[in-house]
Amino acid sequence: MKNKSYLSHVQKGRPGIRGAGAKFDFMMLTGARLKTANACLVEHYDPVNRTLLLTNVEGRAKTKAPTEKRVPVCNELAKVLDRLIKARELKPGQTFFRN
Q1: Cα three-residue angle 44-49-50, rounded to 5 degrees
Q2: Which of 34, 29, 35, 54 is nearest to 44 (CA)?
Q3: ∠ CA 40-83-36, rounded to 5°
Q4: For position 60, what pLDDT does the model report?
Q5: Domain that residue 54 falls in
């Protein structure tokens, strides 16, 4: 699926590829690995400044760099995260995804 077509699916609230779901959309839009996606907490998402704190960043652990980084949130990712928070009634301290 082409990138533009994938983003249009996400914008319309449809799963990206054959029902892959919100976790796959999150990983595609942030470039995060599975371990990083599972560790993402609701309180790491800042909708006002449109940023997201990614923790357990695996590639950085090998270079002794900090294992977390703050990344900007695009419109499509903001919609995915807002839908997750609303649909699952998530509170601060909870993870976006169940392991």
Answers
A1: 70
A2: 54
A3: 15
A4: 58
A5: 3-88
Instruction: Count the domains in the chain.
Output: 1
Q: Is 31 part of a structural domain of the chain?
A: yes
pLDDT tens-digit profile of 61-89? 567 777 788 999 999 899 989 988 998 89
| Other beta carbons within 10 Å of 1 | 11
pTM of the predicted model over 0.85: no
| CA atoms of 18 and 87, how far apart (whole Å) | 20
- For residue 55, the SS3 value is strand
Helix axes 75-88, 3-11, angle to 10 degrees: 40
